[in-house]
């Protein structure tokens, strides 16, 4: 075998990748079957409680819930598949044979890392195209207690929009685009952060690049004078979609749709840090499948006959589960604003990549 090639043997690479993928997806199937069964036992009563629901609605719930469970267990399955594959190879002295042929630890793991990268890309596509849609539909279905899904007509309530230094509050919005109609409009006229006046009107419609509201009651803070006007045009440059934005469910949106929603919210002057963290995590989350072979590699090296193979496998599992704990903790800190969005999504991945490399180099020695 040549040291010049990172994959010195195609036969060995295919052999390891096949073992790894078979074990990973068998574990995925087993975990999904168990977790879906337990979840269905807890939810079937709520589904059948709605009049008219039956077996069809139960299977519909399974079809919507299963993608979420698959996305949840896939990183764990990759970790377990890695440990089982490498522990088996170590037990059969296959790793020793590869090392004896002149392969470094990274060359031994290279096929699994490449396979993990492929699983990451599949996971991203699966989450983006299937899980997001299933999550959005299931959330809507749960909101109506598993009854008929209502038609979303675009109505929104209690929306705030920033127009320069001013703030616009709309009690209710009906319709979309230029046909949007505003109800119970209040404009807070501010100068350098200080409130100088207020406008209030029961309705508003699109007028050019702004919004015509009326009849208007205008209050001037400095003089304390209250006046009445027929109509006033406000919000020049404020787009209709800035009013029709609702609360964003990051899990129910694809990567592209979430990025567009964040841009719209940012243009509307609303906070987006939590959603930005969720956006970055849509990339770092699936990429954790590539990290698992490095964290589980501790099970591959060291003599199996030393009696410490089980301990090494436990260490690999501990590293993997510690990553998932750190990942969830960082996301929670990002949601609270304690961590920047990029750091909340990527810090655990980069940290455990360095830890995995350090452990790998130490165990190889």
UniProtKB/TrEMBL annotation:
This is Lipopolysaccharide export system permease protein. One of its GO terms (cellular component) is ATP-binding cassette (ABC) transporter complex. Its main location: membrane. The chain crosses the membrane at residues 12-35, 69-87, 108-126, 283-303, 310-331, 343-361. The keyword Cell membrane applies. Signal peptide: none annotated. InterPro entries: LptG, LptG/LptF_permease. It is a multi-pass membrane protein. The keyword Cytoplasm does not apply. It comes from Hephaestia caeni. It is found in: Cell membrane. One of its GO terms (biological process) is transmembrane transport. PANTHER family: LIPOPOLYSACCHARIDE EXPORT SYSTEM PERMEASE PROTEIN LPTG, SLR0882 PROTEIN-RELATED. Keywords: Cell membrane, Membrane, Transmembrane, Transmembrane helix.
């Amino acid at each position: 075998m040549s040291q010049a090639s990172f994959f010195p043997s195609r036969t060995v690479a295919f052999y390891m990748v096949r073992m790894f993928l078979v074990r990973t997806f068998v574990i995925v199937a087993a975990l999904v079957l168990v977790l879906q069964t337990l979840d269905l036992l807890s939810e079937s009563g709520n589904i059948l409680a709605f009049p008219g629901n039956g077996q069809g609605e139960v299977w519909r719930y399974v079809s919507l819930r299963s993608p979420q469970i698959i996305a949840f267990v896939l990183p764990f399955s990759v970790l377990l598949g890695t440990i089982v594959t490498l522990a088996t190879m170590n037990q059969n002295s296959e790793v020793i044979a590869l090392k004896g042929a002149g392969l470094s630890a990274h060359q031994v793991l290279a096929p699994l890392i490449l396979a993990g990268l492929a699983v990451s890309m599949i996971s991203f596509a699966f989450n983006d195209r299937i899980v997001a849609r299933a999550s959005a539909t299931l959330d809507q279905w749960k909101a109506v207690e598993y009854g008929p899904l209502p038609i979303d007509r675009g109505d929104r309530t209690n929306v705030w929009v920033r127009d320069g230094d001013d703030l616009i509050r709309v009690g209710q919005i009906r319709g979309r685009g230029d046909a949007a109609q505003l109800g119970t409009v209040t404009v807070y006229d501010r100068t350098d952060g200080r409130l100088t006046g207020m406008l209030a009107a029961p309705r508003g419609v699109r007028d050019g690049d702004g919004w015509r509201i009326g009849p208007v009651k205008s209050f001037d803070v400095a003089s304390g004078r209250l006046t009445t006007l027929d109509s006033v045009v406000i919000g020049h440059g404020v787009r209709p979609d800035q009013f029709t934005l609702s609360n964003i469910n990051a899990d129910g949106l694809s990567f592209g749709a979430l990025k567009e929603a964040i841009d719209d919210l940012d243009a509307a002057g609303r906070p987006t840090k939590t959603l930005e963290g969720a956006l970055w995590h849509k990339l770092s989350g699936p990429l954790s499948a590539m990290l698992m072979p490095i964290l589980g590699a501790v099970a591959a090296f060291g003599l199996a006959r030393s009696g410490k193979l089980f301990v090494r496998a436990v260490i690999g599992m501990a590293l993997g589960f510690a990553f998932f704990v750190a990942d969830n903790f960082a996301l929670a800190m990002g949601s609270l604003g304690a961590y920047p969005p990029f750091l909340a999504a990527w810090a655990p991945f980069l940290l455990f990549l360095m830890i995995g490399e350090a452990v790998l180099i130490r165990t190889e020695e």
